[in-house]
Write a structure and sequence with these properties.
Rossmann fold; six-stranded mixed β-sheet; about 35% helix; globular
Length: about 280
Amino acid sequence: MRLGLIGLDNTHADHAIRHLNAERALGDVRVVALCGGTAERTAQLSGQGGVEFGVDRPEDLIGRIDAAIVMDRDPALHRPNAEPLLKAGIPVFVDKPLAGSVADAEAILAAARTGGVPVTSSSALRWAVEALRERLDGLGELRSVVATGPVQRDSPYGGVAFYGVHAVEMALHLFEPPSAAPLVSVLPGAVLATARAGAAHAVVNLVERDAEGAVPFTVQVTGTRGVLAEPMALGKDYTLPALRRFADMVETGKQPLDEAELLAPVRFMEAITRALPA
């Protein structure tokens, strides 16, 4: 499977090159083309994994790859980089978040329908929460998930979305998508957002970093008979589960997340952004 990698400013690009090209973790799935970086960054990544060529625009990849990964740090770039490829019938994985706005996210999904191909997007933390499922049986019926993580409200890469999406996807993954926008409470150093998700609550607790560091990603799941709470430690291969699901999607044509699941985190984050003071 020949992949194009678009958006090279994210450290996740280094992980993708390491897993797919250097380690060959997914067999014949490898990055053959790079797009969207400086000459120095393109050369650096090419040197890490023997990438075949670079291009200036996503459209230049059409006809030369089987699928694509969009990894720009700024989610505002996800739509313009993913849309032309999806419309051309090329499956795409958009690294978190799917888009910086609901309008852009809906446009990406519409482009996938037009091209007749699957599309997916996820935070690595979503699949870390998935790994907890087998430990939830003793909790009874789930009633809430509280996901805590760091946030940088003034991030140049989409504000609250850049880090906030991790906690949002952790909170939403175990339930059906919320039926309404979350209730958002804003404090000087934190944001708390709560939404009804089926018969449970999804709670996102975003805490600003301070000079000493950042709060760890943590999840607390509460059921009718118990509570499970623990930090979500990420090893060096934390991006691999998302890449594996993407490769499976391309092979099978089946999306790991449906459209409602893909839109839910973007809607949640847009509601948080609107609640923040100007």
